[in-house]
């Protein structure tokens, strides 16, 4: 490929990226645009993110993570401004009762698909909450992807009584 052709393709690619970025400024309500760091190649968007209010102890963040790429993306860990430790949790049946436990290997967000994080299901568990979460507060959550990239979103604090599951920390 000639140098001129590569230069034109590079310029066209840059214009496309800038055009798409400009279009993204009109996000729909309830959608948090992704804030990504290199080398994240995934375009994840978190729709309707929220976090359970808590003065201390445990809380959880929820929402629907949408993958707008043609490749599966794996979320391997998370951090939060409200807690020094966040665990990826799944909820399963253990001895006839619902139990939440750490999710080994992370969550796969399918190509051009989504994964819902909800009460009584998969969620981001905020352990040892150090900053109280009140109704209306905005809590920053950062997801780390298998490729080393990150995606950040802001979750709205909401009152929620919680499910009837128990915590099984040693099960994974």
Explain this structure to me?
The protein has 172 residues and is mostly beta strands. It has a single domain (28-161), classed as Immunoglobulin-like, CATH 2.60.40.1890. The chain contains one helix and 13 strands; from the N terminus they run αβββββββββββββ. It has one helix spanning 3-23, and strands at residues 31-32, 35-37, 44-52, 57-67, 73-80, 83-94, 97-102, 107-109, 114-117, 123-129, 138-145, 150-158, 166-167. The protein has a seven-stranded mixed beta barrel. Strand 3 (44-52) and strand 4 (57-67) form a beta hairpin. The longest helix has 21 residues, at 3-23.
In short:
Keywords: Signal. With 172 residues, the protein is mostly beta strands.
SSE succession: HEEEEEEEEEEEEE
Strand order of the largest sheet: 3-4-10-6-5-11-12
Largest sheet: 7 strands, mixed, barrel
CATH architectural name: Sandwich
CATH topology: Immunoglobulin-like
User: What radius of gyration results from the CA coordinates?
Assistant: 18 Å
Task: Please tell me the overall pLDDT.
Answer: 79
Helix content: 10-25%
Give the structural class: mainly beta
Shape: globular
Total domains: 1
Hey, roughly how much beta strand do the residues contain?
A: over 45%
Termini, distance in Å? Answer: 51 Å
List unreliable stretches of 5+ residues. 1-29, 34-42
CATH superfamily: PCu(A)C copper chaperone
What's the β-strand tally?
13
- DSSP summary: helix tally: 1
């Amino acid at each position: 490929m000639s140098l001129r052709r590569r230069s034109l393709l590079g310029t066209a690619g840059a214009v496309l990226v800038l055009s798409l970025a400009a279009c993204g400024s009109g996000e729909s309500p309830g959608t948090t645009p992704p804030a990504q760091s290199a080398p994240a190649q995934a375009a994840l968007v978190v729709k309707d993110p929220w976090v359970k209010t808590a003065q201390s102890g445990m809380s959880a963040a929820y929402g629907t993570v949408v993958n707008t790429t043609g490749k599966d993306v794996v979320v391997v860990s998370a951090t939060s401004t409200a807690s020094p430790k966040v665990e990826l949790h799944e909820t399963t049946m253990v001895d006839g009762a619902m139990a939440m436990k750490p999710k080994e290997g992370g969550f796969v967000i399918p190509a051009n698909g989504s994964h819902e994080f909800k009460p009584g299901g998969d969620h981001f568990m905020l352990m040892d909450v150090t900053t109280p979460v009140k109704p209306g507060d905005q809590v920053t959550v950062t997801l780390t992807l298998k490729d080393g990239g990150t995606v950040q979103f802001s979750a709205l604090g909401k009152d929620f009584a919680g499910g009837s599951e128990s915590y099984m920390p040693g099960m994974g």
